[in-house]
Design brief:
This protein is mainly alpha-helical. It folds into two domains: 3-67, lambda repressor-like DNA-binding domains (434 Repressor (Amino-terminal Domain), Orthogonal Bundle), CATH 1.10.260; 104-157, no CATH class. Helices cover 75% and strands 0% of the residues. The protein has ten helices and no strands. Helix 1 packs antiparallel against helix 5 and helix 8 packs across helix 9. The longest helix has 25 residues, at 61-85.
Length: 159
């Protein structure tokens, strides 16, 4: 995760005199808690959320993407050094998971998960794990969105 990105977002938010709660209200699909995680470098926002953050805080999306890109390069560079210099079991786990192949559907799930807010992520994980309450939680979240429910039902009907 990018601490530099988080600092940039926090500075932009603070310079506008916004609290995390107020800023999150300006950004569709982002809770104040998630904004806090982004600012602390604990969570990496999707490109859609990044664009919304930039628009709401009056900074360019390119500046945020550049910071994020620089952080990814630094992480990948340090990961290469770690895997080449140390042959530990954790380094082996990292390199084996890096070669994981995803189907198109799995990629869509990952992207949807990254764009979801915390509540939706928790409900989705419950549903995928088959835990009690997962489906009910998702249905209650969808109850106000007839168009989305219709789309989901049509998609499920095609299988």
């Amino acid at each position: 995760m990018s601490v530099k990105l988080g600092k940039m977002v926090k500075e932009a938010r603070s310079s506008k005199g916004l609290t995390q709660v107020a800023a999150a209200k300006l950004i569709d699909g982002l809770s104040a808690a998630d904004l806090g995680r982004i600012e602390r470098g604990e969570k990496e926002p999707s490109e859609v959320i990044l664009k919304s953050i930039a628009k709401a805080l009056g900074i360019t999306q390119k500046s945020l993407l550049d910071v994020l890109s620089d952080a990814e390069k630094a992480v990948s560079g340090s990961a290469k050094k770690t895997s080449s210099s140390k042959k530990t079991s954790s380094a082996k786990k990292t390199s084996s998971s890096a070669g994981l192949k995803l189907t198109a559907t799995e990629k869509k799930l990952v992207l949807a998960y990254r764009e979801a807010d915390t509540k939706t992520k928790k409900a989705a994980m419950k549903l995928l794990k088959g835990e009690d309450g997962g489906l009910e939680q998702i249905l209650s979240m969808l109850s106000g969105n007839k168009e989305l429910v219709s789309t989901l039902l049509n998609t499920l009907g095609k299988k």
